[in-house]
What we know:
By secondary structure, this protein is mainly beta.
Amino acid sequence: MISSYMALIFLMLFSIVSEASPRPDSHAPIGVMGDHIHKKGEVMFSYRYMSMSMQGNRSGKLDLTPQEIATGTPNLFAGQPMMPTTLRVVPTKMTMSMHMLGAMYAPSDQLTLMAMANIVEKKMDHITFMGGSGSNILGNFSTNTKGFGDLSLSGLIRILSSANHNAHLTVGLSLPTGSIKKNDGILTPMNMRPNVILPYPMQLGSGTVDAIAGITYSGSHGGLSWGGQTRSILRLGNNSRGYSLGDEHTVQAWLSSLINSQISVSLRTAYFHRSNIKNIDSEIMLPVQSADPNRQKINRLDIGVGLNFIFPNNRNRLAIEYVIPMYQELAGPQLKNDWGITVGWQLLL
Ligand SMILES: [Cu+2]
């Protein structure tokens, strides 16, 4: 009799513990930002390292060679002094890496506050074609930028909370802590090497205060979990150099499966849209696609595979996700996304 009571108590304790212990898939794949909220009083710190690579050019859905661009793509600045009629500098590859630090704090069960800061490093490789026409190559050069990106501050507001379904709204601001005046040396088609303000994709921030808005849902049943998120970044006005980057919208969904109580694997698909730049930085005037405000729009569908790991103490999480594009349509020519990887560590205090 006593032993069966003991067994019952043990069973109850065990079930309470296992119910209370978080699952590795209670966080979305690590490439998703602001995917979860916290219980009152919880504090979480996170570090993510993101690396992405772009390679080759495309206009619309058509791939273009550097020679095709240098001889066939009109230069926005044609007609101005020293300006060729076609683009004569062609980006061939770009890499970007980012160290992202995040902090979350929940003043109540309904509200989680989140801050994210990052350090960005970018590198772009180019071919410079000789003179105003033809397909003779003058040389190659790379430009590099590095520094703080924009700082985001958000509130995550719970709108649905049940055993298997959760949802929250995200409202926030991105503050223009990233530079929009980064410069570096380039090689011009006339064989000069001036130091110039670099084209838009090499800058580190938007220069504007941006609104962040989104909705996130997540659910689970048995060994499976899933979720979806929409997230938009809306530029408020023009920046100090007179332009505003295109608004960005992401719509995504993911599915995760438990391997055991510590490890889950995930599959994610994300649709990303970015508009062209409005207005222009009057000092960014080069015969290169990246200097054209109307060659910035992106429609892209990505697919990602990931792994989440939660340490037995339930306080530390490690996660990794690898993403490749399935489809991309670019107001081009623009460099195509090739792959991206995110590795993250999250610590619940
Ligand atoms: Cu968190």
